[in-house]
């Protein structure tokens, strides 16, 4: 269970602006500045350098920050309401359902706008996540490993179905960018909807206490006067909204929602309201660092950031499994 081993008092973490948090913010700001000046195009030696700086570099860095916060928060909320540290959009099939939503949008609208793509991804993310929760309710064995296995099996089925639909209607090329999450195409006019993630952040912070109670289980939440089902639907809706936007604009970003919440919970416990600022800041830092690596590792070419995230996330996933085995 997610609360295991974190029974220590949380009073030490009530203060948000501690020295470590301020230091983390400074590090993320420095990474953001480094991101602004990382790239093949010489913005200081070209006549249109400053124009390119504001057309591509600034939007890309802003997209990195917003996306990092969105995926990290989604993982945190999902782990809380499922009471499992190995759960996040990648291990529940939510990402695959988003891709299926994009495919159906392209199927019915040959040249869909970004709003249509976002709508399809959000709706299918919500449907898929709710199906995942329905599966969980029927599973009696709720070990930490069984839950993500169910999610990944469900995601594999949806991914296979998406591939079949794409090949049948010759539409795979329309969503091929989704399969490889990258910020290479981000520029002015192609990322602005990511700012809606700020609304999701505010709503999660407002509902933090209720979501925390829902994480204690249906019986405990109900006894404390919380409508468990409504909170689960609300949490699922917020997750789907954030993941759908990121999927439509950026693509598939694996394991970010697994890495960051686990690192934060490892040192700070499981209080959502207290951990949310840390998760947002650390998520921004992790994805910005991975993106800088993806841009520099084989310059002048660029590796998709999803490749870096997938590699790091897989290692973290294995480490978490080994820690849980050792604790038992």
TrEMBL record:
Keywords: Cell membrane, Ion transport, Iron, Iron transport, Membrane, Transmembrane, Transmembrane helix, Transport
UniProt membrane topology term: Multi-pass membrane protein
Ranges annotated as spanning the membrane: 21-41, 61-81, 93-109, 115-136, 143-161, 167-186, 193-211, 231-264, 276-298, 304-322
InterPro entries cross-referenced by the UniProt entry: ABC_BtuC-like (IPR037294), ABC_transptr_permease_BtuC (IPR000522)
Pfam families documented for this protein: FecCD
One GO biological process term: siderophore-iron import into cell
Xref: Gene3D superfamilies: ABC transporter involved in vitamin B12 uptake, BtuC
Subcellular localization, as worded in the UniProt entry: Cell membrane
GO cellular component, one term: plasma membrane
Family (UniProt): Belongs to the binding-protein-dependent transport system permease family. FecCD subfamily.
Protein name per UniProt: Iron ABC transporter permease
């Amino acid at each position: 269970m997610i609360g295991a081993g974190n029974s220590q008092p949380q009073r030490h973490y009530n203060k948000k602006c501690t020295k470590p948090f301020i230091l983390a913010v400074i590090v993320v700001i420095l990474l953001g500045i480094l991101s602004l000046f990382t790239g093949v195009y010489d913005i200081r030696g070209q006549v249109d350098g400053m124009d390119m700086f504001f057309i591509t570099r600034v939007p890309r860095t802003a997209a990195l920050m917003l996306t990092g916060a969105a995926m990290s928060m989604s993982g945190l909320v999902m782990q809380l309401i499922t009471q499992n540290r190995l759960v996040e959009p990648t291990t529940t099939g939510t990402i695959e359902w988003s891709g299926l939503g994009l495919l159906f949008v392209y199927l019915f609208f040959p040249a869909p706008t970004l709003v249509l793509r976002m709508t399809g991804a959000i709706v299918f993310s919500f449907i898929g996540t709710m199906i995942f929760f329905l599966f969980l309710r029927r599973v009696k064995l709720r070990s930490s490993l069984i839950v993500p296995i169910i999610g990944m099996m469900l995601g594999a089925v949806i991914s296979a179905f998406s591939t079949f639909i794409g090949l049948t209607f010759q539409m795979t090329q329309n969503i091929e960018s989704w399969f490889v999450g990258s910020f290479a195409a981000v520029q002015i006019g192609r990322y602005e909807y990511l700012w809606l993630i700020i609304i999701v952040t505010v709503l999660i912070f407002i509902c933090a206490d209720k979501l925390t109670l829902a994480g204690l289980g249906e019986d405990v939440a109900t006894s404390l006067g919380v409508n468990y089902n409504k909170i689960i639907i609300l949490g699922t809706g917020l997750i789907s909204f954030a993941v759908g936007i990121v999927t439509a604009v950026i693509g598939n970003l694996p394991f970010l929602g697994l890495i960051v919440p686990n690192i934060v919970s490892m040192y700070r416990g499981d209080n959502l309201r207290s951990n949310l600022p840390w998760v947002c800041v650390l998520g921004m830092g992790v994805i910005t660092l991975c993106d800088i690596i993806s841009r520099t590792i084989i310059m002048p070419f660029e590796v998709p950031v999803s490749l870096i995230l997938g590699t790091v996330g897989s290692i973290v996933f294995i480490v978490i499994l080994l820690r849980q085995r050792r604790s038992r």
